[in-house]
C-alpha cells in the first residue's frame, strides 16, 4: 500500500477496503446460497399438527401433560387453552383454542435470534432452542407473534414447545396429543400424504393463526371461532373510546 | 367486532424487554446523534475555534458507547455469554449486525478522538507537570517535535479519515436502531419503515441538545479564554437553530407515523391509542410533547433566548427528556399491545436493573466531568496567545 508522508493513502485504503468487503460479501452469499439450496433436499419430514376445536373440551389435560413432560416451571406455559364465551343468554356458545408453538416455516423468532441459538432441524422442520448457545436476550420472546415463547427462570434461556422432540424422534406422539381427552390434536408428518394429519387436513377446512404475517405456521385449526384466533384489539379500542 | 364476547381464560405474556433496553436505544441514538451534529458542523465551519466542540462531540459519545453495552449485558439471561454474540453470528438478525456496528462505532470514535486531542496531548507531554506521565502514556510516548499547528498538519489526513469512518458508523448505528425495531413483524407499533426516520430525528434532537449542554458544562468547569468563549457561544446559539429545526422534524416524522398507523388496520389504530389515550398517554403528552417538543421549541425560537446560557441549557435538557420518553414510549408501548389476549400486557418493575442503569448513567456523567479536568479540550494556541 502506498504511503504518503502523512500516512496511508485514503484512495488506496478505500479501494482495498471496498474490494475486501465485496469479496467477503460474495463469499458469504455463495456459502449461504449453497446452504439454502441444500435445505429442501434434506427436509424429509415436515411435522405439524391439526387441532379440531370441535373436539376440545378445555379439560387442560394438554397443559398438565406438557408441564409434566417438559418440566415447565410454575407460571409458564408451552401449551395452554384459551377459553371464551360468546353471545348473550340464551344464545351463548363456549369456544376453546388450544395453543402451542406453531413451529412456523418462516419463524420470526428464528430470524431475529442474534446468536443462532434458535434453529430448525432440516430433517423435520421443528424449531428448537440450543440452551448452550442462547444468551437469554429475549429478542425471540418479543418477536413471536403468538406469545409462544418465554425465558425459563431456571435455565435463563428461551423456552418453547418443540412438539416433544425427545418423544417424536422415538416414534411416540407429543405428550399433549397423548393426553388429549377429546382427541382434538392430530400430529404427524405434513409432507406424507398418507399420514393422519395430512388426511385430516385434506378433509377439513382449516385456519392458521395470524395468517396475515406470512409466518406459515404448522399448527392448523379446524372450526376455530374468529374471535378467539387472535388478540382482541376491538375491546381495548372500544374501552378507550367509551 | 360487535358480538358480546367474554374471555374466561387466557395467558398474559408480559413485556419481554424492559426499561434497560429502552435506555440502551436512547443512549445510542444520543451518542450517535451528538457525533453526527458535531462532525457535520465541523464540515460546515472548518475553523480552529470550532475544534473544542468537535472534541466534545466525539469523546463524550465514545464514553457513552463504551459503557452502554453494559445495559445489554446486564439484561441478558446469561451475561457471562455476551462475548459469544461476536462469533455466534446469525446473518438474518439485526442485533447480530448491531453488535459489530456499535463496537466499530465506539472504536472509530476512540481513534478519531485520539487524533483530535493528540497535538495538545503532545504539547502537554512536553511540559513538566503533574500529569506529564499520563499525557506521555496517552500519546504512546511518541512526543513529536514542532508546534501544535505543525503536528496537526502532519496528521490531518489520518484525522479526517477517521472522522469520515466514525461519521459513517454513526449513520449505520441510527439505521440499525430503526431496522432493529421494524424487523419485529408481529409488533404493529414497531413494524414500520418510519422507525429509521424516528431514530434519525431522535439523534438530531438529542444530539444537538447534548452538544449544547455538554459544551456549556465544559465552559463552566474549565477556563476558556474570552475570545474562544465568545466564538463557542456563537456556535452554540447556532446549534440552538439546529435543535429548533430538529424538533420540527421530529414532530413531522411522528405526524407521518401516526397517519400511517391509522391505515394499518385495527392494530395500528390501537397502537396510536397507546400514545393518545392509552397506558403511555401521560408520558406522551406531558414528557414527550409538552416538555420534549413544545418547551424547547419555544425556548429556541428567538435569538436572544438561544444566546442565553440558562435558557439554552433548559431547552437542551427538555429536548433530551423528550427523546428519552419518545424512545421509551415506542419501545415499551409497542410491547404493551397484546399478542394473544384482550388486555394490555403488563410491565414487571425491575428495580435492580433500573438502579444499575441509573448508576451507569451517573458514572457516564462523572466521567464527562473528569475528562474535562484532564483532557485538553481548548485550543492551546488560543491559550498561548492569551498568555502572551
Q: Report helical residue fraction of chain B.
A: over 70%
The domain tally of chain B reads 1
CATH uppermost class of chain A:
Alpha Beta
- Report the portion of residues of chain A in β strands: 15-25%
Structure description:
The complex is a heterodimer of chains A (242) and B (388). Chain A has 242 residues and is α+β, with helices and mostly antiparallel strands. Chain A has nine helices and twelve strands. In chain A, the strands form five sheets. Chain A has a four-stranded mixed sheet with strand order 10-3-12-11, with helices on one face. Chain A has a two-stranded antiparallel ribbon with strand order 1-2. A two-stranded antiparallel ribbon of chain A has the order 4-5. The model of chain A has no long low-confidence stretch (mean pLDDT 88). Chain B is mainly alpha-helical. Chain B has one domain: Formate dehydrogenase/DMSO reductase domain (Formate dehydrogenase/DMSO reductase fold). Chain B has helices at residues 19-45, 51-67, 69-75, 94-126, 132-138, 148-154, 156-182, 194-221, 226-262, 265-276, 281-299, 303-307, 309-336, 351-374, 380-387, and one strand at 5-9. The longest helix of chain B is centred in the middle third of the chain and has 37 residues, at 226-262. Classes of the chains: A alpha+beta (242), B mainly alpha (388). Chains A and B meet through β2, α1, β4, α3 and α4 of A and β1, α4, α7 and α10 of B.
What is the topological layout?
The complex is a heterodimer of chains A (242) and B (388).
Chain A lengths: L2 E2 L2 E2 L1 H33 L4 E6 L8 H10 L9 E9 L2 E9 L8 H5 L5 E3 L6 E3 L9 H5 L6 E2 L6 E2 L5 H4 L6 H5 L5 E5 L6 H8 L2 E2 L11 E4 L3 H4 L3 H9 L1
Parallel strand pairs in A: 3-12
Antiparallel strand pairs in A: 1-2, 3-10, 4-5, 6-7, 8-9, 11-12
Chain B lengths: L4 E5 L9 H27 L5 H17 L1 H7 L18 H33 L5 H7 L9 H7 L1 H27 L11 H28 L4 H37 L2 H12 L4 H19 L3 H5 L1 H28 L14 H24 L5 H8 L1
Characteristic terms for this protein:
heterodimer, A: 242 residues, alpha+beta, Alpha-Beta Plaits, four-stranded mixed β-sheet, two-stranded antiparallel sheet, 9 helices, 12 strands, 20% strand, B: 388 residues, mainly alpha, Formate dehydrogenase/DMSO reductase fold, 74% helix, 1% strand, disordered C terminus
